[in-house]
Amino acid sequence: MLARLFAPRTTVHAHCDLPCGVYDPAQARIEAESVKGIMEKYASNDDPVFRTRALVIKEERAELVKHHLWVLWTDYFKPPHFEQYPHLHQLFNEATKLAGTAGAKGSVDVAKAEDLLSKIDEISKIFWETKQG
Amino acid sequence: MLARLFAPRTTVHAHCDLPCGVYDPAQARIEAESVKGIMEKYASNDDPVFRTRALVIKEERAELVKHHLWVLWTDYFKPPHFEQYPHLHQLFNEATKLAGTAGAKGSVDVAKAEDLLSKIDEISKIFWETKQG
Amino acid sequence: MLARLFAPRTTVHAHCDLPCGVYDPAQARIEAESVKGIMEKYASNDDPVFRTRALVIKEERAELVKHHLWVLWTDYFKPPHFEQYPHLHQLFNEATKLAGTAGAKGSVDVAKAEDLLSKIDEISKIFWETKQG
Amino acid sequence: MLARLFAPRTTVHAHCDLPCGVYDPAQARIEAESVKGIMEKYASNDDPVFRTRALVIKEERAELVKHHLWVLWTDYFKPPHFEQYPHLHQLFNEATKLAGTAGAKGSVDVAKAEDLLSKIDEISKIFWETKQG
Amino acid sequence: MLARLFAPRTTVHAHCDLPCGVYDPAQARIEAESVKGIMEKYASNDDPVFRTRALVIKEERAELVKHHLWVLWTDYFKPPHFEQYPHLHQLFNEATKLAGTAGAKGSVDVAKAEDLLSKIDEISKIFWETKQG
Amino acid sequence: MLARLFAPRTTVHAHCDLPCGVYDPAQARIEAESVKGIMEKYASNDDPVFRTRALVIKEERAELVKHHLWVLWTDYFKPPHFEQYPHLHQLFNEATKLAGTAGAKGSVDVAKAEDLLSKIDEISKIFWETKQG
């Protein structure tokens, strides 16, 4: 993966903004794994203190998933990418919505976390395709 | 504006996630006004300490503009909205990109801040239309 | 409201500090609306996961109310304002205390959120008077 | 100082809000020492990278001074304290304003940091008096 | 304590990094007192809203304890210190682990907070010894 | 890498604390790549606005490197690991110190960022060994 990080930038980066040009969907994925891990532990432990702490921490990790996805969507992806992948906007919107795990019912459902990981996987696949463009 | 905040939610909110249902593009706009104000003061003061502080603070405010826009895009707007306003995804993407004010050249250009305010205005117009739907 | 934001600054701003001169009590009000919205949803949903998430998020929004009020009190209001409105210090102190919603009993009481909104309204009224001074 | 932290709470704490009842002006003071230390190093080093980093970090520490003072003002001090010390509101307002070190000219002036430390000292003195009440 | 803060730096500081050279274990201790205070109040109040808020806030304060300890360990202590106090690495690691209060069972146990305070005390003792070196 | 994330935990995790058990040194590495990228861009662009923004952003990313390393050191690694890798404490201390890139002179030196990446690589190697233990 290190090799890929150093791969030459495609032309859409020509006028890249400052920060650094380093993006990696792994950041969102690792936090989403964490969300899933928390849900699994929540399901198997009914101590109320544990469960409250789990929900507090899950809320934070989920917020980080959203943040990392938003940064990719705004800072990494450029107009030519959105032309090439017309569903990319919707994909990001669905992924960040899933990270927010709306309804109270769904919010400790491990399957929701797996859906989120799948979406991030789709984004990741597109991301690495654009890096190799 | 208070009246509008208490206006009945449209049906797209039916399955609204927890937080509260309170969103307002004014949050992004106020921070963007701040970005513009900083750029104006930057332009008219060449004290180096002042200018460095201005850039530090502008970076923070711009980050907040992005955050507030991302929240609207992910948490407030629902699939029916994106169907009704097909350019909404792109509008948000352009607005958040402008908030990031990529290139070093543009980053203290007051006109860039005005472009950002116009985009937020467009978003705001759509937002209030959907509230009255 | 945009018009008012661009209104000429009164003389107390003559030595205005850097940031930008853009302040707006709407920032505190929107977060306080959010606190109120959360309390309402809390009251009408007894799912424990939902309720814990509600309390976590409410704690954050309340913190933001406090922050926005503190910034107004410290950064916007200047000595002449405090002379003109002798109860302004106390008003801000009461408003931020309300945002902290001290006692466990009161902390999910919607009436407390309404008190908070009233205090912010009083501050807002004074704020806009000073802008038109 | 540990002894004082464990001293019995005065009656104004009777309806103390949750968090913990632990407050200490040392938190504001330590950050203000840091602001002063940064200014001293800024004055004696004209490397531009060093100076920019100094200003970035000073901005953060100053923000923390403000935050710790705001928390004391809102969360620790209660109405009876403000009656007993009628200038306490103004003292806090002046201290937080100094922490913000408004004008560009003053913002790297070590004397400003010393003024800030004096104000915090005054607050600290009152604080410990109220603890022993 | 003020006197000590201004005491001449020992030689290990010769190449001190920018920030300011101001460190004080009191920052970690005050947050740890707060964690202990919260646990005590948690133990004596079984209102579920109160308890959830207590856990949310405790999580934040514990995170701050960790942060202040990490900063001391990385930014204040230098190689000669670690040679002089060979158990210092482990001491910090144990203290930060305690601040994280791993297992659900232990996480509202006041004794755990007291252990944490003892560890911070040990660190504090070493810290002040190195200042006087 | 996904495979490895799901590999069975070694026994030292038996009493694993809540959060989730998901750790990955990639988080520190990605931020460190970012620090390096910023330094490279800094070196090749002498626009003062660009350079100030670069330093502001680098300071943030470096702080994140430190944070991710501290979390690994405190939350992931357990006493048996430190016995097995006696230099692990020092390795983390050196890596976080490098992330802080003390002196003004070194702080925009790309070689320093490469040293940091090497240290993170060493940590990463140990991390994955302990996962496969």
Quick structural summary:
The first copy, chain A, is mostly helical. Chain A is built from six helices and no strands. Chain A is about 70% helix and about 0% strand.
Overview of the structural elements:
The structure is a homohexamer of 133-residue chains. Chain A is mainly α and 133 residues long. In chain A, 70% of the residues lie in helices and 0% in strands. The longest helix of chain A has 29 residues. Chain A is elongated. Chains in contact: A-B, A-C, A-E, A-F, B-C, B-D, B-F, C-D, C-E, D-E, D-F, E-F. Chains A and F meet through helix 2 and helix 3 of A and helix 2 and helix 3 of F.
Which chain pair has the greatest contact?
Answer: A-F, 23 and 23 residues
Order of helices and strands of chain A: HHHHHH
The residue ranges of chain A in which pLDDT falls below 50 over 5 or more consecutive positions are 1-17
Structural class of chain A: mainly alpha
Number of DSSP-assigned strands of chain A: 0
Radius of gyration of chain A in whole Å, from Cα? 16 Å
Summary keywords:
homohexamer; 133 residues; mainly alpha; 6 helices; 70% helix; 0% strand; elongated; disordered N terminus
Which SSEs are present, and which pair or pack?
Six copies of one chain form a homohexamer.
Chain A: H1 2-5, H2 26-43, H3 48-76, H4 79-84, H5 88-100, H6 110-132
Helix pairs in contact in A: 2-3, 2-6, 3-5, 5-6
